[in-house]
Amino acid sequence: MENLLREERSFPPSPEFAAQANAGPDLYERAAADREGFWAEQARELLTWSKDFTEVLDFSGAPVARWFGDGRLNAAYNAVDRHVEAGHGDRVAIHFEGEPGDTRTVTYADLKEQVSRAANALAALGVRTGDRVAIYLPMIPEAVIAMLACARIGAPHSVVFGGFSAEALHSRINDAEARVVITADGGYRRGKPSALKPAVDEALAKGTPVEHVLVVERTGQDVPWTEGRDVRGADALAAASPEHTPVDVEAEHPLFILYTSGTTGKPKGILHTTGGYLAQCAFTHKHVFDLKPETDVYWCTADIGWVTGHSYVTYGPLVNGATQVLYEGTPDTPGKDRWWELVEKYKVSILYTAPTAIRTCMKWGAEYPGKHDLSSLRVLGSVGEPINPEAWMWYRRTIGADRTPVVDTWWQTETGAIMISPLPGVTAAKPGSAQVPLPGISADVLDERGEPVPNGGGGYLVLTDPWPAMLRGIWGDPQRFADTYWSRFPGMYFAGDGAKKDDDGDIWLLGRVDDVMNVSGHRLSTTEIESALVSHPMVAEAAVVGAKDDTTGQAVVAFVILRADALERADEAGEGEDVVAELRNHVAKEIGPIAKPRSILVVAELPKTRSGKIMRRLLRDIAEGREAGDVTTLADSTVMDQISKGMQR
Ligand code: WTA
Acetyl-coenzyme A synthetase N-terminal domain spans which residues (predicted)? Predict the structure, then answer.
């Protein structure tokens, strides 16, 4: 933290970069002079509306905003058809690279045909405007096609990350009441096919409203089949017409639901609508990455299961008519230079990835990027967690040849699109800081009492005015929406992040201030993992904390109290390690492998206050190898000694 404040390096854009950049300093001035007029201009310039809007923002139903409320449009038309109509049908939309090395080139004309067929296939399965469709797919072009096919008929999609378990899929399908699931037999990961369809079968066996499962063939592996319910993707597409008229929807029509972890055990279905979301995705993608659709090759390494994949793989780039790389697999298959091989092969000019990936590449060593010609790169982006200045510098130097601007972009599933970030042709970038709210965005850092902190001070990050891509609520739970985000500082959106303002007033993000962990840029809830642990018959009680980790940012560390009978059994058989392994696997099964604790410590007691609240702060001290801090508020102050002793055993 102190290091952060002493960071004095600054990297202004080169005059050449600034001269050719999409955005100049005037963008901030225009937005400051007339915020709503500015967003209206962007929405008209970047999107094609079937009916123009006359209203810009209506916040009379706060905290639910309406943007461009009386306008009408279709998201898939904006992402696909209009580029073909404008004569860019031959432009590559997606350079797909499968993990085994198979490739596919999808032009905008191809995309139009495939999305249209898929939309007709969904309609044939009974999906109508407004129905929800769950998508559980690997990173293959069909993932993007499925999302756009849903958007084309106005059926909100709910993409569930392919690494989530059947249990997690089941609860998401039921919460959104999805009628159809689109999945694949499997995908390639770490050099071998990894099945997906069995998890769908398991989820549906628990009872859901799903009527059909559309199964894309990717690996060709054998999958269980339920006649009448399951439909082969290839058959459905072949039978469908390649012509489909996109359904015009209101600007506020739901585009998608995406589940994210909150501070309680139950994931929140974050709801995004069409017009404002697309306008801000397109605006940010154009200006933060300085996109030139005719010449750039853009690559965002995020999975479509996360919001970054929604806004900066599917919607932002395609609405802007960009050419992008889509890669199915892991960065070290078959070698640790796979990403850099792809940058060279496709001449990637804009790369958008996460600090955890950058730190992993740092650990592997500069020799891997060093094997390849990376001179096509001209903008580098980072997202998902605070980027430490060392990683930022390595990214710029080793990947960007000390030449490319690096943009550290802060945003959330809830914000829909980038909110705080340097502009590459304008901002003198500081390693480790997201710095300034984008034009048209208002943010501040407040103290406990809700007063803005002066420069040099720290507190809570808030967004002070509504923005076009803001969430419109939590699916089915308006009260939780109001309570979660709008009650801490009335009238303002509280993001859950801590932040500092430096002496120049630039914003430095400091991580979550609530019970949400950030592991490799993935949001995980401590409560959700605790619930998973307690659902195991051996566990009496559990407490989970996020401990600092050099590579993943944070790591999950769990403290569990076993039930007496389980403890006896474990002691007698000397099976302590088996118990830990079993519990780790149990969490993977309940939530997904990403939620597996790095370590699980079996303890006799947990540190609690007199009112029974677990003091996670003290557990974090232990997990990070420190002496436990102030224990005076504990009901039983000897508990921490017992836990520390247990650690040394
Ligand atoms: C964190 C991902 C610091 C933050 C787009 C936020 C960041 C959470 C940054 C949202 C950044 C994201 N610097 N922290 N540049 N970007 N975060 O919903 O804690 O998966 O609240 O959205 O990630 O995670 P989410």
Answer: 26-79
In a domain, 437, yes or no: no
Angle between helices 576-590 and 526-534 (to 10 degrees): 120
Q: Write the pLDDT tens digit of every residue in 285-326.
A: 999 999 999 999 999 999 999 999 999 999 999 999 999 999
* Ligand 1 and 523: CB distance under 6 A: yes
pTM for the whole thing?
Answer: 0.92
Q: How far is CA 334 from CA 101, 324, 346, 382, 539, in A?
A: 9, 22, 18, 24, 40
Longest distance between any two alpha carbons in the chain, whole Å: 74
Question: Would you say the ipTM is above 0.85?
Answer: yes
Distance CA(630)–CA(616), nearest Å, equals: 12
Among candidates 419, 204, 425, which has minimal Cα distance to 311?
A: 419
> Which residues partner with 325 through β-bridges?
95, 299
Domain assignment present for 93: no
Number of folded domains in the chain? 1
Token pair, residue 342, equals 């792809």
Ligand 1 atom at minimal distance to the Cα of residue 387: 13
- The CATH code of the domain that includes 582 is 3.30.300.30
290 Rama class: left (phi>0) / alpha (psi -120 to 50) / beta: left
Residue 172 belongs to some domain of the structure: no
Distance from chain centroid for Cα 135: 15
55, exposed or middle or buried, with CB in 10 Å at 0-12, 13-18, 19+? middle
Q: Cα angle vertex 350, ends 442, 257, to 5°?
A: 55
Is residue 404 one of the residues assigned to a domain? Answer: no
Q: Is the CB of 413 under 6 A from ligand 1?
A: yes
Decide if 433 contacts 406 (C-beta within 8 A).
no
- Which residue(s) pair with 214 in the sheet? 182, 231
Domain coverage including residue 610: 516-648
